[in-house]
Design a protein that fits this description.
Radius of gyration: 15 Å
Number of strands: 0
Shape: globular
Distance between the termini: 44 Å
Helix content: 55-70%
Length: 91
């Protein structure tokens, strides 16, 4: 059984999702389900996953300034609270 949920995401991500073939959107839905269940089972595991994602972003050259420049719902980037490893002055 499935249900529909609403969540706010940035326009670029929404565009990528809506442009993806239905098969890929189905896979992304499965991935979201896994991520959310992982969060419920062990919130610290989600933190480790987020740190890993942040570290990979750094490895690929994404800077703290680029992360902070992302505007989410008129607020400063949520990345600083989600991935402090990526927006620290040491970056």
């Amino acid at each position: 059984m499935t249900t529909t949920i609403q969540m706010e995401i940035d326009e670029t991500t929404a565009g990528i999702y809506t442009a993806a073939p239905q098969e890929d959107r189905n896979r992304l839905s499965v991935l979201w389900g896994v991520l959310i269940r992982e969060y419920q089972a062990a919130p610290s595991a989600l933190g480790r996953l987020m740190n890993e994602i942040g570290n990979k972003a750094k490895e690929r050259g994404l800077t703290a300034e680029e992360l902070e420049s992302i505007n989410i719902s008129g607020k400063k980037s949520a990345f600083s609270s989600l991935w402090p490893c990526c927006v620290s002055p040491a970056l």
